[in-house]
Amino acid sequence: SHCSFVLEQLKFLPDDEKRRDHKARCLWFLDTLVKFSYLRMIKKKHPVGPECPQIISRKLRRNFTSLTYNHGGVQNLVSASMKAKITAYVIALALHIDNFQTDLTILQNDLKLQESRMMDIAKAMRLKVSKAKGLLGLENDQDHKLGTLSLPLPVQKAPRSQRKRRKI
Question: How many CA atoms lie within 13 A of 32 on its CB side?
Answer without folding.
Answer: 22
